[in-house]
């Protein structure tokens, strides 16, 4: 079997799994009506949009042969900084002024914070040659601590309609988070398939040494990819904060696991060099529909976790089996 | 000329006969036989790529032969893995030692078969006690609790030997044990080998250092192109005779360059030094000077560890901090800080290990081809796959690469065609100097001929090529001038007319 066919087949496995779930839930007499309602469909899409933003960034990182465990914490800190700036402004005692932020200004601040934390990950990894697992594990704790410090342990709420729009607003009948994550998906499909950076991610994830000997600047590429991963976690933080109208110190705890799960279920190899953003979209959809279905079927939350874990194992096992045949 | 291989003859411990082994695209062993006797050292000689390591791997159970039979003390054996070979009494000591650095000497010796107390825990006291006995027997004065990482390479070899003996090895295979140790350690190892022989251990010994033979060897076998050229008693052949057996047939019979008129100088290197990464004060490359002109193939010959690869890597900007010297490209002095700088200046390197260093196997032929000059395939800031395919397709046709399409993954190509993809990647950057490190290693004779023809074409179009090779016939057939390296230094330079197998090999053999 040639590799193209094999890749299609692997993709087909995920699509088939998704379709199977959708068909099953549609035919189930108890939940069919609710499941098929437009409201539920939009709900699923809105729910996965936060994970989707995180997972796009993580896909880039994993394609390059790395990992980012800090996305959940970075999400929390970005959202908290944006909410704090909006609510209280930025005091500059040296000049005796307090800068006030519009909602747009707060978004930019949140993005910059996410990107900065991501850049720091990349800097530590390239400068000190730390394994990405360790470097981002450190950041997982750092950013969580910063969030607690920044919020003093209490949620920042009452952020106003302008800020809330990106989380709760609609445009042309679709929720804003769906638009935003959709645009990001489209953008990063192009980045991974049609730009130098995208190609370089596959190259260094596939064979770092060969990429280096082909004149690629590993340092710059890794800095870029971790910075992007941080910025996308920032977007996710803004979406979550806006939707809840609240930046909480514990936002995003454990999100890195759902995110890794989505990337892996989507067929991206944890060894790097193989995978795609569209696969990750599929992975997010599978997790989203699975969560939704289990809730509708009134499966206990404890069992939900067990089932989700089994799905991840099955996905990776299938991936391994197809990889071994190469 | 083979020594009698009668299995009933007393003293024969290990006998391999008719061993053949193929890898995709290359026949590594072709009907090879080897007889090893109790208490004797059988040296295995040959150029790099002659098949010595493959044969050792077959004997040690790393992979099975396609054909042929291995008899151990008169009984046929077939090992599924190195562990089974070890248990049967055949131990192999690889050039890169197989010890675990952070474990102690004793833990390494008894790895996987630690003595246990009655409670089922590891009996450290007994383990250390037994280790001490082995170490004493081998005259290695280190405590059994010393981590292996703290030992010198020579001492680590002794630990490997202790490990082998403690498993009752009757045959020990040593792969170039003296290539990485100092003169004094060599003497210690030789003493130890003589002691092992007295104790009845049979030793198969791979070496490039012919001077060692009179000191330790009882008999030797020369291999070439995956075949046995001959086996003799150690005293029965002179140094020159052995060299002649090693180099053998002449590739220039089947390939000869069109003589070309070299152009102006494109690369000059003066007094290049590269500090050794591990041994302070020592050099991997020492005081090497050379020049290369347009339209010329400069051959660099050397045996394993001669510093050839390091020389090329230094020129390619891979060791900017450890190296010193002067490099001039097209009249301009340069000092490359990274491969990118070298590539931009027109100096490119096709590395020795194409799977690990040359290609991204998980990418397509097209993506590999454009990797080093991806900007050429961009339109309006985005990759244009039509343009990329066109670029790759041009080189597939020009280099006659066999691939169903440029979208095929590099992983699925044969060795020779993978090498062509590496070349395509570099030609796409329009280089001035092409550094080739063992470009034909592991590829079959026809693919080799194609690569040579290609090199001919490239130099005819004005490229300068530095060809590093450990295959003498290749160097002799392809190079216009030949530089010989040994132990990091340039030991000789010949024109095409002056060079012959003997004078090159003499300059290449280490003297210590």
Description:
- The complex is a heterodimer of chains A (326) and B (512).
- Chain A is mainly alpha-helical and 326 residues long.
- Chain A is built from 14 helices and six strands.
- Chain A has a two-stranded antiparallel sheet with strand order 1-2.
- In chain A, 48% of the residues are buried.
- Helix content of chain B is 31%, strand content 26%.
- The longest helix of chain B has 16 residues, at 183-198.
- The radius of gyration of chain B is 25 Å and the shape is globular.
- Classes of the chains: A mainly alpha (326), B alpha/beta (512).
- Chains A and B meet through helix 8, helix 9 and helix 10 of A and helix 10, helix 11 and strand 18 of B.
- Secondary-structure-based class of chain A equals mainly alpha
What is the oligomeric state here? heterodimer
Using a beta-carbon cutoff below 8 angstroms, give the protein chain pair with the largest interface and the number of residues from each chain. Answer: A-B, 26 and 33 residues
Count of DSSP H/I helices of chain B: 17
Report low-confidence residues of chain A grouped into runs of 5 or more: none
Strand-residue proportion of chain B = 25-35%
Main sheet overview of chain A: 2 strands, antiparallel
Distance between the termini of chain A: 9 Å
Give the spatial strand order of the biggest sheet of chain A. Answer: 1-2
Helix content of chain B: 25-40%
How far apart are the first and last residues' alpha carbons of chain B, in Å?
Answer: 31 Å
Q: Which structural class should the secondary elements of chain B be placed in? A: alpha/beta
Shape of chain B: globular
Please report the total strand number of chain A as a whole number: 6
Major sheet of chain B: size, sense and barrel closure?
6 strands, mixed
Supply the number of helical segments of chain A: 14
Determine the mean pLDDT of chain A. Answer: 91
Order of helices and strands of chain A: HHHHEEHHEHEEHHHHEHHH
**What overall form of chain A do the CA principal axes indicate?**
globular
> Roughly how many Å is the radius of gyration of chain A?
20 Å
What's the total count of β strands of chain B? Answer: 22
């Amino acid at each position: 079997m040639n590799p193209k066919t094999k890749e299609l087949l692997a993709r087909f496995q995920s699509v088939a799994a998704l379709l199977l779930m959708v068909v099953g839930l549609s035919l189930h007499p108890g939940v069919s009506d609710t499941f098929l309602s437009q409201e539920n469909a939009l709900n699923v899409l809105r729910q996965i949009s936060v994970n989707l933003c995180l997972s796009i960034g993580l896909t880039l990182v994993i394609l390059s042969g790395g990992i980012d465990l800090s996305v959940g914490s970075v999400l929390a800190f970005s959202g908290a900084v944006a909410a704090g700036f909006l609510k209280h402004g930025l005091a500059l005692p040296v000049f005796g002024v307090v800068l006030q932020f519009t909602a747009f200004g707060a978004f930019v601040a949140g993005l910059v914070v996410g990107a900065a934390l991501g850049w720091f990950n990349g800097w530590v990894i390239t400068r000190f040659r730390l394994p990405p697992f360790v470097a981002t594990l450190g950041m997982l704790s750092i950013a969580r601590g910063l969030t607690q410090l920044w919020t003093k342990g209490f949620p920042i709420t009452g952020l106003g309609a302008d800020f809330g729009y990106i989380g709760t607003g609609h445009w042309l009948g679709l929720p804003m988070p769906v638009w935003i994550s959709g645009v990001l998906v489209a953008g990063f499909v192009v980045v991974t398939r049609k730009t130098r950076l995208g190609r370089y991610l596959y190259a260094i994830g596939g064979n770092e040494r060969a990429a280096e000997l082909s004149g690629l600047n590993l340092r710059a590429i890794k800095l870029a990819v971790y910075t992007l991963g941080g910025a996308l976690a920032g977007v996710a933080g803004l979406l979550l904060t806006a939707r809840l109208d609240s930046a909480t110190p514990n936002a995003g705890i454990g999100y890195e696991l759902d995110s890794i799960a989505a990337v892996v279920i989507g067929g991206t190899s944890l060894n790097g060099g193989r995978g795609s953003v569209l696969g990750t979209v599929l992975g997010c959809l599978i997790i989203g529909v699975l969560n939704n279905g289990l809730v509708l079927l009134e499966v206990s939350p404890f069992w939900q976790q067990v089932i989700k874990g089994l799905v991840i194992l099955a996905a990776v096992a299938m991936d391994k089996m197809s990889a071994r045949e190469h | 000329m083979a020594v009698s291989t009668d299995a009933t003859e007393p003293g024969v411990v290990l006998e391999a006969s008719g061993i053949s082994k193929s890898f995709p695209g290359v026949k590594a062993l072709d009907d090879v036989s080897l007889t090893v006797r109790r208490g004797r050292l059988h040296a295995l000689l040959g150029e790099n790529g002659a098949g010595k390591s493959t044969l050792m791997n077959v004997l040690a159970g790393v992979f099975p032969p396609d054909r042929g039979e291995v008899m151990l003390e008169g009984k046929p054996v077939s090992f599924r893995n190195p562990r089974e070979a070890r248990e049967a009494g055949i131990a192999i000591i690889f050039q890169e030692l197989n010890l675990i650095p952070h474990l102690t000497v004793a833990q390494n010796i008894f790895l996987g078969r630690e003595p246990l107390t009655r409670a089922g825990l590891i009996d450290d006291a007994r383990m250390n006690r037994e280790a001490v006995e082995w170490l004493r027997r081998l005259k290695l004065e280190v405590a059994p609790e010393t981590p292996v990482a703290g030992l010198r390479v020579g001492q680590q070899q002794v630990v490997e030997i202790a490990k082998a003996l403690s498993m009752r090895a009757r045959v020990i295979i040593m792969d170039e044990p003296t290539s990485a140790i100092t003169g004094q350690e060599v003497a210690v190892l030789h003493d130890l080998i003589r002691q092992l022989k007295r104790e009845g251990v049979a030793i198969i010994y791979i070496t490039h250092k012919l001077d060692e033979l009179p000191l330790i060897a009882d008999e030797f076998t020369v291999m070439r192109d995956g075949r046995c050229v001959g086996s003799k008693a150690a005293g029965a052949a002179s140094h020159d005779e052995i060299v002649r057996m090693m180099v053998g047939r002449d590739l220039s019979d089947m390939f000869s360059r069109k003589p070309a008129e070299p152009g102006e100088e494109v690369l000059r290197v003066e007094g290049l030094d590269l500090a050794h990464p591990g041994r302070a004060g020592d050099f991997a490359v020492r005081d090497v000077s050379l020049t290369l002109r347009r339209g010329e193939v400069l051959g660099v010959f050397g045996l394993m560890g001669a510093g050839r690869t390091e020389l090329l890597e230094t020129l390619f900007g891979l060791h900017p901090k450890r190296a010193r010297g002067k490099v001039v490209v097209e009249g301009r002095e340069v000092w490359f800080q990274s491969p990118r700088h070298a590539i931009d200046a027109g100096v490119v390197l096709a590395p020795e290990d194409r799977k690990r260093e040359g290609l991204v196997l998980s990418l397509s032929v097209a993506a590999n081809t454009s990797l080093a000059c991806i900007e050429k395939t961009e339109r309006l800031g985005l990759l244009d796959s039509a343009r990329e395919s066109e670029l790759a397709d041009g080189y597939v046709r020009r280099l006659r690469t066999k691939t169903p399409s440029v979208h095929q993954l590099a992983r699925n190509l044969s060795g020779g065609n993978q090498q062509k993809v590496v070349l395509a990647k570099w030609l796409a950057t329009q280089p001035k100097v092409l550094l080739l490190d063992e470009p034909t290693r592991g590829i079959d004779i026809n693919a080799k001929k194609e690569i040579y023809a290609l090199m001919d074409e490239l130099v005819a179009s004005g490229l300068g090529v530095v060809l590093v090779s450990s295959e003498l016939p290749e160097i002799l057939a392809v190079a216009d001038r030949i530089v010989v390296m040994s132990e990091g230094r340039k030991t000789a330079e010949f024109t095409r007319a002056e060079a012959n197998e003997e004078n090159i090999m003499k300059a290449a053999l280490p003297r210590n």
